[in-house]
């Protein structure tokens, strides 16, 4: 990709989806679920060749595959998570100023467990996202045997479960303790040896076990939630082995220019207090070109970025080798 240009999904279809999305959300999605990401924008991804194969892998996580527990006990434990409303366990002093999903448990991904099913706030985006990285960007092999992966911001683990079923050893991190407890329970209940959930902030993915440790990092649905996107991308860069690949998916601002929009959490807090489901306490939303430039500036090579329906961007970058970056103004000078 040359400077000043990014690739994108078909322009007319993209514009049509953007025009329809607000009205569709109002007419079709119940008010209680308006924070749910993506049914409309995922329709095209469901037609991608890999979608059905990836969806089939989720059948490994049905109650007929349980290890060491029975379906009734399993369902009861899962439903206990759904009722959790606990700010203290996350260390929050003022829950009213925090992201609603961090205080009150919300299941992240659609999951049919066989004897019961849970709708997720993000629907099937764990599948459409991975299918997009595979089929549109050619950045994710179907067999991940022998690959070590980091899934940053895993929520209830939809993508982590699929990646583990593809053969990867997956370290899945999220800063919200409730979601890691839930994913940890799934890991134990299904005996998933290659899945390792950890309660950990992105900014804590440093040092032993993280530096130069991963073949692929999935950094999806997170960049716009962090206060320091440049530092975040550099930490991801440091987590990769030489030759490793970073897969970024993020909410974005629709622009052909290299711009970053500051959104801030205030509007989301107001929406939450009004009883609506807020979008997730966003900070900065990059354009596709801004994201590509940030990725290059922290060290990534062979960067590609594509605008996607629903004001999202997909990007891929490779760590060809460990290189230094500009240190002036860097908020953590001790990053590698």
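Sequence proposed for the structure above (336 residues):
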């Amino acid at each position: 990709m040359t400077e000043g240009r990014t690739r994108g999904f078909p322009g007319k279809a993209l514009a049509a989806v953007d025009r329809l999305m607000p009205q569709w959300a109002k007419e079709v999605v119940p008010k209680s679920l308006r924070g749910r990401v993506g049914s409309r924008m995922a329709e095209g991804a469901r037609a991608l060749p890999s979608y059905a194969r990836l969806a089939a892998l989720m059948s490994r996580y049905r109650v007929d595959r349980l290890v060491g527990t029975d379906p009734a006990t399993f369902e009861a434990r899962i439903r206990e998570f759904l009722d959790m409303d606990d700010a203290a366990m996350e260390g929050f002093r003022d829950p009213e100023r925090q992201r609603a999903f961090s205080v009150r448990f919300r299941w992240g991904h659609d999951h049919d467990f066989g004897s019961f099913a849970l709708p997720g706030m993000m629907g099937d985006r764990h599948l459409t996202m991975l299918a997009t990285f595979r089929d549109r960007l050619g950045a994710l092999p179907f067999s991940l045997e022998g690959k070590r992966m980091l899934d940053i911001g895993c929520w209830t683990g939809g993508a982590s479960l699929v990646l583990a079923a593809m053969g990867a050893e997956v370290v899945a991190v999220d800063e919200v303790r409730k979601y890691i407890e839930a994913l940890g329970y799934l890991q134990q209940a299904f005996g998933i040896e290659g899945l390792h959930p950890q309660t950990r902030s992105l900014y804590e993915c440093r040092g032993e076990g993280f530096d130069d440790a991963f073949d692929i990092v999935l950094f999806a649905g997170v960049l716009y939630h962090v206060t320091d996107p440049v530092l975040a991308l550099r930490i991801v860069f440091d987590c990769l082995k030489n030759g490793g690949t970073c897969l970024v998916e993020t909410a974005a601002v629709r622009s052909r220019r290299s711009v970053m929009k500051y959104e801030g959490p205030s509007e989301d807090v107001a929406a939450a207090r009004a009883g609506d489901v807020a979008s997730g306490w966003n900070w900065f939303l990059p354009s596709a070109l801004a994201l590509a430039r940030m990725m290059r500036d922290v060290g990534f090579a062979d960067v590609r970025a594509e605008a996607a329906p629903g004001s999202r961007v997909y990007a891929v970058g490779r760590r060809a080798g460990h290189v230094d970056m500009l240190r002036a103004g860097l908020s953590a000078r001790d990053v590698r």
